Amino acid sequence: MLEPPRPVDESARLKSLRSVGILDTLAEERFDRITRMTQRMFDVQICLISLVDADRQWFKSKQGIDICETPREVSFCGHVILDDHILIIEDAQADFRFADNPFVTSEPHIRFYAGCPIHSPDGHRIGTLCLIDPSPRRLSDEDQRTFRDFAKLVENEIALSTQATVDELTQIANRRGFNLVARHLLSVCLRNDTDAELAFFDLDGFKAVNDNFGHAYGDKMLQHFARLLSKCFRAADVVARIGGDEFAVLMVGSDPASNAALRRLENLAAAETSKLARRLAWSVGRIQFDAERHSTIEAMLADADSRMYQSKLRRRLTGS
Asked: Quick one: 132 and 204 in the same domain?
């Protein structure tokens, strides 16, 4: 059996998967309707919408099977997300990659498999729509086009879910989207004894910007700052607009490189100051994840917010 390798964009892909907010959620008729139609169209025993997480594949919708997830290392879908092609295995028993896979040699005795990548709204391959049958099969070119059409329906439904987790103005995560991803990441940190750091930003003098330059210009400043954050922090970091002129970045991993990212932010903001009519300035509060203090992401945000306020107050008192 050939274990599926990891995509080159794995960290960003996992961040994208979690940001859509449907991992480990209840079954939904809008997704089940698609798998029922696909199963009936192709006359297969099993049809799944599979989301490929860090160490498992989890089924958002399933027809013809009862289990909710399987280990990623034995998944067929882990191979599908490596590129944008439909993966077709006409007879798994005759394919060296899968012949001794436990799902081939035992239940559900897979012989035929076809998986079409499913993309998040930002373009990452987060899972598959897949067909499974205990008899060898083929898919014609026309079948493959139809199969892609069904996968596109899944992507459309995911995009509708994502709209509730993305800030419309800045196109980064909103508070709900941030909380969904951050809760998952902190549970991973707790389980694996991994470090994390939260940076909480507040734009200085933003009310005066709206008063003096108008709300349209204020919106432009918010969009500009969101772009700076996205450029300066790592692709795997969670960048969000928490509300108003407040932003947050959650960094996970041993020794998060926050100092370097903040220096990049200062330098890039200075270099691009000509893009704005008013100098961009902010206060930031930073907090390390402490499992005893931070039982929720909301507790961590509150601590970081408090430190941000202290930083802002010091700057006002010193005039710096």
From this structure: no
- Are residue 47 and residue 121 in the same domain, yes or no? yes
pLDDT, tens digit (0-9, with 9 covering 90-100), for 120-167: 999 999 999 999 999 999 999 999 999 999 999 999 999 988 878 889
* Contacting residues for 263 by C-beta, under 8 A, at least 6 apart: none
Q: According to the model, what pLDDT value does residue 273 have? A: 75
Q: Are residues 23 and 158 in the same domain?
A: yes
The SS3 assignment for 196 reads: strand
Is the Cβ–Cβ distance between 17 and 23 less than 8 Å? yes
- Which helix (H) or strand (E) is 199 found in, with range? strand 196-203
pLDDT tens figures, 102-115: 999 999 999 999 99
Are the C-beta atoms of 173 and 241 separated by less than 8 Å? Answer: yes
Q: How far apart are CA 163 and CA 171, in angstroms?
A: 10
Answer yes or no: do 30 and 151 share one domain: yes
H helix or E strand, kind and range, residue 132: strand 125-133
Distance CA 43, CA 133 (A): 9
> Number of structural domains, the chain?
2
Which domain covers residue 133, as residue numbers?
Answer: 10-162
Are residues 229 and 149 part of one domain?
no
User: Burial letters for 119-154: b for 16+ Cβ neighbours within 10 Å, e otherwise?
Assistant: bbbeebbbbbbbbbbbeebebeeebeeebeebbebb
Q: Provide the H-helix boundaries in 54-106.
A: 77-80, 102-105
Both 116 and 243 in a single domain? Answer: no
pLDDT in tens, 17-31: 988 889 999 999 999
